[in-house]
């Protein structure tokens, strides 16, 4: 038994090596040896690992052919090896191969159980092949799997990730015996669609449905509280966790959501208290996860505590935490607001030189904003053109930032070019036209203002009124 296990383990290690080094010819030779020894079909683990290795290492031209050949060669109706293969494809991001595997299983008469159906629905939502997912939903109903809480949860997840919330709600209500997983799938959809109130309503119904709150549920509750600025309810969630001793006091995802909730509701001191406590374990200091640092950086930044952002970033480096791209967005943006151009540029250079991170659109946007606030409009314009040359997407908000800086500095020519670029991306953007109109008014360019006004009337463009969320407490005497 020990010898058999050792040989099986050795075979799987060899296949892992060939897969990681993309040695397709070696895998084919190894396949022949396994067939000659009669070892291949005596172990499900070896069989599925060999299939996964051959299919993923094969060239794109041969991938589907290899998959079809393997499944055709398996004359067993046992779904287990193919279910494992489905899971492997999903885990490693080969979603189209996972869907193809399910199709071939169906063609060859291999039974589709709830495990296979759930894996396929996950792959369909991840690969954005919504039509395939809908076909899977139809099959689930026809095959009598609609009563399964596992299959039902996967269907809810499919519609939620596609932001088809009405369909997700229908699928959720059709599950006869619900659990927390299907409720969490719907909560995730509400969160993605920013339907915070619906999320809170579902959270309040869960005890009536005999559904327990798990870590995902409570994290989703905090996200909804942050979206609604419902600080009172957010404090209740925090108190519930402390009261129930659920172990979430050390959960990184929950703690980061708690920090962001307090930060978005304006209680930065409370967010800092949670952050500081997360760095203690049994009264001694411990190294905090980068997610907690970026959550606190974001809380400081959103509340206008830009000096504290820079100081917290330095504390993070002292603690030996490697910053990620999110941290650099926060600290460079803070430098833009404090006017520390050289410091912001040095952080940008450090990101590339010291931490080998490739800057994205959001980092270049922060640098453009930094230069604009310092009045370096020509440098900002050149940087935007460099971004275009590198194929980075330029957003309307970036052109708007440049336009706003031109308005403050009185650069009419550059403002016109920035406005033109912004309107090419969003012709109905009233904010861009309003900024340009304000600039014209600053220099008494009334003819240009009239032209803009006529343009807005012709195209039916109206400036939307701004609004803010606050929580109003009733004080009774």
UniProtKB/TrEMBL annotation:
<feature type="repeat" description="PPR">
    <location>
        <begin position="289"/>
        <end position="323"/>
    </location>
</feature>
<dbReference type="InterPro" id="IPR046848">
    <property type="entry name" value="E_motif"/>
</dbReference>
<dbReference type="GO" id="GO:0003723">
    <property type="term" value="F:RNA binding"/>
</dbReference>
<dbReference type="Pfam" id="PF13041">
    <property type="entry name" value="PPR_2"/>
</dbReference>
<protein>
    <submittedName>
        <fullName>Pentatricopeptide repeat-containing protein At1g77170, mitochondrial isoform X1</fullName>
    </submittedName>
</protein>
<dbReference type="InterPro" id="IPR002885">
    <property type="entry name" value="PPR_rpt"/>
</dbReference>
<dbReference type="Pfam" id="PF20431">
    <property type="entry name" value="E_motif"/>
</dbReference>
<dbReference type="InterPro" id="IPR046960">
    <property type="entry name" value="PPR_At4g14850-like_plant"/>
</dbReference>
<dbReference type="Pfam" id="PF12854">
    <property type="entry name" value="PPR_1"/>
</dbReference>
<dbReference type="Pfam" id="PF01535">
    <property type="entry name" value="PPR"/>
</dbReference>
<keyword id="KW-0677">Repeat</keyword>
<dbReference type="InterPro" id="IPR011990">
    <property type="entry name" value="TPR-like_helical_dom_sf"/>
</dbReference>
<dbReference type="GO" id="GO:0009451">
    <property type="term" value="P:RNA modification"/>
</dbReference>
<feature type="repeat" description="PPR">
    <location>
        <begin position="360"/>
        <end position="394"/>
    </location>
</feature>
């Amino acid at each position: 038994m020990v010898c058999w296990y050792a040989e099986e383990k050795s075979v799987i290690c060899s296949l892992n090596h060939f897969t990681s080094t993309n040695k397709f010819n070696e895998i084919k030779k190894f396949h022949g040896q396994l067939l000659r020894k009669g070892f291949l079909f005596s172990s499900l683990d070896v069989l599925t690992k060999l299939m996964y290795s051959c299919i993923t290492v094969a060239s794109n031209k041969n991938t589907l052919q290899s998959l079809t050949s393997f499944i055709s060669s398996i004359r067993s109706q046992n779904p287990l090896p193919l279910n494992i293969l489905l899971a492997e494809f999903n885990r490693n991001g080969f979603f189209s191969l996972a869907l193809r595997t399910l199709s071939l299983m169906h063609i060859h008469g291999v039974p589709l159980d709830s495990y296979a159906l759930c894996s396929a629905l996950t792959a369909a939502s991840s690969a954005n092949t919504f039509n395939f997912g809908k076909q899977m939903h139809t099959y689930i109903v026809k095959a009598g799997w609609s009563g399964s809480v596992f299959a039902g949860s996967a269907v809810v997840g499919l519609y939620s990730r596609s932001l088809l919330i009405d369909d997700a709600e229908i699928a959720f209500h059709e599950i006869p015996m619900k659990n927390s997983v299907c409720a969490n799938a719907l909560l995730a959809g509400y969160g993605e669609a920013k339907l915070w109130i619906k999320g809170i309503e579902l959270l309040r119904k869960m005890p009536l449905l005999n559904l327990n709150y798990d870590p995902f549920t409570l994290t989703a509750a905090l996200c909804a509280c942050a979206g609604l600025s419902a600080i009172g309810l957010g404090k209740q969630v925090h108190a519930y966790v402390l009261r129930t001793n659920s172990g979430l006091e050390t959960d990184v995802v929950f703690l980061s959501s708690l920090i962001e909730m307090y930060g978005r509701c304006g209680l930065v001191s409370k967010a800092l208290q949670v952050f500081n406590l997360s760095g203690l374990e049994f009264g001694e200091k411990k190294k905090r996860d980068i997610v907690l640092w970026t959550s606190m950086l974001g809380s400081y930044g959103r509340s206008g505590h830009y000096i504290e952002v820079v100081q917290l970033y330095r504390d993070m480096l002292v603690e030996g935490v490697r910053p990620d791209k999110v941290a650099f967005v926060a600290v460079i943006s803070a430098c833009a607001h404090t006017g520390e151009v050289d410091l912001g540029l040095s952080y940008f250079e450090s990101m590339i030189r010291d931490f080998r991170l490739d800057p994205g659109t959001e980092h270049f946007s922060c640098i453009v904003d930094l230069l604009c606030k310092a009045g370096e409009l020509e440098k900002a314009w050149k940087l935007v053109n460099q971004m275009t040359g590198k194929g980075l997407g330029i957003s309307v908000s970036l052109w708007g930032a440049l336009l706003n800086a031109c308005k403050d500095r009185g650069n009419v020519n550059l403002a016109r070019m920035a406005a033109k670029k912004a309107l090419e991306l969003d012709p109905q953007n009233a904010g861009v036209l309003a900024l340009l109109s304000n600039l014209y008014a600053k220099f008494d360019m009334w003819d240009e203002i009239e032209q803009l006004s006529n343009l807005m009337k012709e195209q039916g463009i109206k400036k939307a009124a701004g609004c803010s969320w606050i929580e109003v407490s009733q004080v009774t005497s």
